[in-house]
Task: structure prediction
Amino acid sequence: MAIEKIKAFAPATVSNICVGFDVMGLAIEAPGDEVLASRHHTPGAHILSCNHEKIPLDAGLNTASVAVQALLDKLGDPQMGIGLDIIKKMPVGTGMGSSAASAAAALVAANALLGEPFRKIELLDFAVIGERAADGATHADNVAPSLLGGLMIIRSLDPTDVIQLPIPSDLYVGLLFPHITILTKEARGILKTEVPMKLFNQQVANMGSLISALYREDWEMMGRSLVDMVIEPQRACLIPFLSQVKKAAYEAGALTCSISGAGPAIFTFAKGKTQIENIGRAMVDVMNELNIPHDLHISKINQKGSIVLEGK
Ligand code: HSE
Result:
């Protein structure tokens, strides 16, 4: 008997990672979104439900259904219908790749429901189409790691060319989510379209040395390289407490501390669990002093990406 329903999970992500605006991202273990895909009597992709009032139920506007519709279009079966129930387990507009996670989970669930006509890497093109529905821009620094896992560089989307970077086994990520919303569209809108040559040079040098540091497990070089010269200075005005949080994190021994994606989430890296917990506490202390509600997630890098949870 054909499987009628499949649920999949896709993790939250940290994109940009200081030096790779729109081209670098990593997945964390949790939180993440779940999507239940089921067969639907009406052709096309449909949103049946979502547990978050800010997420559009219109299939043409929702990242998950737009992504699954792209999959169905490629499949070329005009009668095929898929319903999607979105179970959001992370906040929206946070810089944690919420819309990307919904698209990735929907694709993995729908693809499994259909008997896996596409390899996971092939789902990336559909995921990017879905992500475009969220902020109007084409970038895969959230959807690629959410779908495929790991710490990635997106070298090209036309054709798709993504690279998994090595992850030092002791590398931990801390992700502080202050309960305020920043729309990615706005955070992109304030960016200048040109980068002074000096900053461009430094950012490229930092990206190169970061990659070398990851291969060599050179923690000091990693720390020296993880500095955002271009994007963070332009977006810092959107997160008034950013400098205080960064100061506390660095004083507690962070390798880096910067904006996650378009913000307001702030990420940090450290070697070892004890170190990241100390840094997390220091960041949380700042938030408590400022009376800003928040959550802190501590995690290793998720190497699996999106996975099927259950099917029947
Ligand atoms: N790279 C994107 C940005 C991620 O920083 O605008 C947004 O989700």
About this structure: The pocket of L-homoserine is lined by residues 15-16, 21-22, 139, 141-142, 184, 187-188, 261-262 (CB under 6 Å). Residues 197-216 form the longest helix (20 residues). The radius of gyration is 19 Å. The first strand starts at residue 5 and ends at 15.
